[in-house]
Known about the structure:
- The chain is α+β, with helices and mostly antiparallel strands and 175 residues long.
- The chain is built from three helices and nine strands.
- An eight-stranded antiparallel barrel has the order 1-2-3-4-5-6-7-8.
- Strand 4 and strand 5 form a beta hairpin.
- The longest helix is centred in the C-terminal third of the chain and has 13 residues, at 150-162.
- The radius of gyration is 15 Å and the shape is globular.
Amino acid sequence: MRYLAPLMMLALAACNPVDTIAPSYRDTSVPITSKALFSPERYAGTWYEIARFPVSFQKGCTNTTATYTLRDTGDLSVRNRCLVEGVEKEIEGTASITGPGRLEVSFQGVPFVKAPYWVLWVDEDYQTAVVGVPSGRAGWILNRTPSLREDRLQAAREILDFNGYDLSQLEMTPQ
């Protein structure tokens, strides 16, 4: 349990306006979009993190996954996991649907903070997804398997670029 603190910073980093927690990796003058035809039912399941913008709460994380489970309320439960120096870290929370492709995530142990989490793109088969936050302080490329074909990676990078993200800051996540 004592290893949860870095993951709990997810909510804080995504919405905190102070650059000391996380710099913005996005030109916020560029409009950000979210997936208009988003299905929480299809989004549910496990996603492997393929790439991310560096954020303090994920420092040293490898083998990173996010698992979403549909709740009776229509919201999603979320469980983020990763390994840091061989030790598993995990944090659980809730993702409330606030609009098409727009979620508001809160985590246990992080009081009073709800972070915007926008699904910018997900392919037709819900196998690859791109997620970002309006502030640009975080962003991820996710896939249903631990590896991603080059053409899908390129498509995901194009979505981030379209939404104003600085691709030179994107890091591949060891799986």
